[in-house]
Amino acid sequence: MNSTVIVFPGSNCDRDIAVALEKMQFKNKMIWHKETKLPKSDLIVIPGGFSYGDYLRSGAIAGKSLIINEVIKVANQGCLVLGICNGFQILTETGLLKGVLLRNKNLKFINKDVNIKVIDNNNKFLKKYKNNQILKINIAHNEGNFFTNKDHLKELNEKKLIAFKYCDENGEINEDSNPNGSIDNIAGIFNSKKNILGMMPHPERMIDNLVSNTDGTNLFSSLLN
User: Fold this and answer.
1) How is the chain split into domains, by residue range?
2) Considering 13, 85, 93, 167, which one is annotated as catalytic?
3) Is 79 a residue of the active site?
4) Is 204 a catalytic residue?
5) Cβ contacts of residue 172 below 8 Å, gap of 6+?
6) pTM
7) Which CATH superfamily is domain 2-224 in?
8) Catalytic site includes residue 22
């Protein structure tokens, strides 16, 4: 399976995701943001980091980069697109995903492992997980507070477009288990066709028991199969 990782000035998780993809036997390529053509790809990843130093607004400048026009084009044609952390922010800036990522509720940068619950596995990204499965995944963000309007929130729930929700170790979804203030504890969402996933947690950091755990592995193996 061919994957492409988009690299922006300020990206700091591009190599992490490349290591994860290559470990899972993806044929991966790294593409600089000033390129105007994408290699043939089954999966495009927009990685985490601080593209353009988060100036103006997280993801705002990256969302206007040259390569993003091609990402939008192939995404609308059905190519799989994964946006992680800053990548999720960029996807909302481009309009490929609805909603916005606001400052965390405590107005501080958060870097810690949290629990998230798999809400819907009926898609190409999460089919190797079970619904309601609890994962421990790292988060590292300053603007991870997902917000959207009532109509879109209703659509997310009715069409099963919520991928993950923050929860505690027992799977309880409540204010205490919400690290950043995201509406309805949402940690990741799909577009209407479910070929685009935006998520704040970093699955690429959870692929090796020596450094963390392997709770992120099945996201990548789901895509391979």
Assistant:
1) 2-224
2) 85
3) no
4) yes
5) none
6) 0.96
7) Class I glutamine amidotransferase (GATase) domain (3.40.50.880)
8) no
Looking at residue 156, its amino acid is L
Per-residue pLDDT of the chain (225 residues; tens, 9 = 90+): 999 999 999 999 999 999 999 999 999 999 999 999 999 999 999 999 998 888 778 888 888 889 999 999 999 999 999 999 999 999 999 999 999 999 999 999 999 999 999 999 999 999 999 999 999 999 999 999 999 999 999 999 999 999 999 999 999 999 999 999 999 999 999 999 999 999 999 999 999 999 999 999 999 999 997
